Amino acid sequence: MRVAFAGTPEFAAIALRALLAAGFDIPLVLTQPDRPAGRGQKLVASPVKQVALANGIAVHQPEKLRDPATHQPLIDAAPDVLVVAAYGLILPQAVLDIPRQGCLNIHASLLPRWRGAAPIQRCIEAGDAETGVTIMQMEAGLDTGPMLLQETLKVGAGETAASLHDRLAEQGGRLIVAALQRLDALDAVTQPAAGVTYASKIDKAEAAIDWTQSATAIERRIRAFDPFPGCTAQLGDATLKLWRAQFAEGNGQPGEILSVAPAGITVACGEGALRLTELQKPGGRRLTSADFLAGFSVTVGQRLR
Question: What is the pTM (predicted TM-score) of this model?
Fold first, then answer.
């Protein structure tokens, strides 16, 4: 079976490595163009491109796929199947029609829940007890295609987007190999109409904490936005990033600092309180609360906003 692959970030790179380890013939990889990154803003190849080049696979990096001319490398590769994982570009119908056996998507949720761009973050933010990976046949709609395989995964109590990403990526790589190895024997199941939710793309504006929300909602968001974009709060003129929080006892005005100790900074929420245990000051790095307080003054009665 000739398997072309389309993906960009590390989630997709893990799946590509799994396909290579399973011995599939991969004639072509599609990935997004190199992007500037780091302080020097030098162009950096995507994780998927790096895996492809290390394995001698041809790479195609169109900005978009609207122009039929951009489809030619995929046509020339003559794949039986195109596997797609977190590619980041919309595939027009003309591209979906190229592979002889269609296109398969690795989606990091239990479809039809959390269709869309940010299923990992949104499931943590919503407090879901479980998530998983769905292997689906692609069609023109947004994550609406028939499902071939689905496997659940429990969401840990302290799960961050980073830790859940890594577990789902491994699961996705394993499942896509299993799906391709018995593709002809799998039944395509139409997604149910009930239970559809959408995981909208994370907007950086969402990073600012609203302290009138409950401690439960804020704690979930802090975990959901780790590592990107990170949650923020203003203390005076400084914008702090908040990386870890625990539920704590206490009451006060939303955002009011109730206690300051090496074990954490306790802050009142709209309902309940949180103890901030890992923070970052402007231009600094992530620190435990004890190390943070050694270099940044915080006093009881101040307000985070």
Answer: 0.95
